[in-house]
Model the fold of this input.
Amino acid sequence: MTSFNLSDIVGHGLEVPKKIPVIKVSDSKNIFTYTFEYFLGMQNKEFTWKEGYQGVCDWLENNNNKGLLLLGACSLGKTFMARYVLPAILLKYSNRVLKSYDLNRDDIDNILSKKICCLDDIGTEDVRNEYGTKRMAFSEIVDNAEKNGNLLIITTNLTGDEIKARYGLRVYERLLAITNQIAIKGSSERG
Done:
C-alpha cells in the first residue's frame, strides 16, 4: 500500500473538517466541587452533589471533541453551573473563555462567531424576527457548530423527545453528534 500525505493539498481550497476545542482538566471532580462550593458560598448556599455531576467531571477530564448538553428539571443548578462554575474552570485550567448567551436577547450573529459558547435554557426562546426575516436561533447555532467545529455547552429543561419535537429530527441528531448528553437529577435547589 502506498502512503501519502494530504497536508500539501489542504492549502489549495480543499475543505477539511474544523478542529474542535479540546478540554482536558486533571482532577476535575475536586476542581468542580471546589468551584461550585466557592460560588455557592458567595450566596450563603451549600453545595449538594447531584446525579449527573460525575458526567460533567468526566467531560472536563476529556471532552472527546464534543460539547455538553445538560438536561434536567428546573432548579437543579444547570444554569448556575453553566454561568459560573464551568466558565471559571475553563478559564483557569484550559485558558478558554466561556460566555453564556440568552437566545431571546443576544445577537445571533455574534453567537455564531464564537468558537465556544453556552446557550442557557434552550426551549424557552421565540422565533426571532430580524428585519422581516424569521430566524430559528438554536437551529442555526447547532448547524453552524457542526459545520465549523464550535463547542457548545447547552442547558435545558426539555427532554430529548421534547427537543426533537420542538427543533426537528435533523437538529436533534446534529445535537447528539456534537455534544455529550448528561441528565442532571436530584432535589430542587430553590425548594
Summary: The longest strand covers residues 116-122. The first helix runs from residue 7 to 10. The two ends are 65 Å apart (CA to CA).
